[in-house]
Amino acid sequence: MPKLYPDARAALAEQLRDGMTIMSGGFGLCGVPMVLIEAIRDAGVRDLTIISNNAGTDNVGLGMLLHTRQVRKMISSYVGENAEFARQFLAGELEIEFNPQGTLAERIRAGGAGIPAFFTKTGVGTAVAEGKELRDFDGETYVMERGLFADLAIIHAWKGDAEGNLAYRKTARNFNPMMATAARMTVAQVEHLVPAGAIEPDAIHTPGIFVKRMIALPEGYEKRIESRTVTKRAA
């Protein structure tokens, strides 16, 4: 079946519904599937559970869905840089499940590998372990964490071919590869679309078997920067 769709709205057609769980790739604003997030916003679906390392910035990335009150729960690691997120959380309008970053990555990887749960030392003795099973191994205490699996994963890739094979570039190769494996439906937005077979097998980060649908981003696609650090001018 052809995997390439003309735009984000078409690629997400019949895949969105209220109350669903969505994984969204990215680290800060790097490797974030902005166009697909915009299409979810425009579709108007609500009560979403979003699994993402962070929550974007104000009205950028996942911040768009927070701004329109479409998110019910976030499963995340770092949620700074977003004043609207903080406001909704402190007002009791948004549920949050915090995860140590490595634990979040492993929960996603485990979900994609069909592993329902695993034990880790990270978080033992802290609020992270509250209400979770603890078990001793070789005299050390570990906390059980559950694998994560979503209804939909939206990801951003640097290069992709018609068969759905993907390659990521530098920091954008963050949560995207593991999320591609951990959902019933994976939709990718791709910066550079190339013919099938044009990506060297050793350079493929996500095999096409995991990608069901994809869109090619237009030329001039803007990559947003979370914050800039520049040298101050002399007085």
From TrEMBL:
GO molecular function terms listed in the Swiss-Prot or TrEMBL record: CoA-transferase activity
Superkingdom in the source lineage: Bacteria
InterPro entries assigned to the protein according to its UniProt record, in alphabetical order: 3-oxoacid_CoA-transf_A, CoA_trans_fam_I, NagB/RpiA_transferase-like
Keywords: Transferase
KW Transferase (keyword) present: yes
Record-linked Pfam families: CoA_trans
Record's keyword annotation contains Transferase: yes
PANTHER family: ACETATE COA-TRANSFERASE SUBUNIT ALPHA, KETOACID-COENZYME A TRANSFERASE
NCBIfam families, alphabetized: pcaI_scoA_fam
Protein name listed in UniProt: CoA transferase subunit A
Native source organism of the sequence: Plastoroseomonas arctica
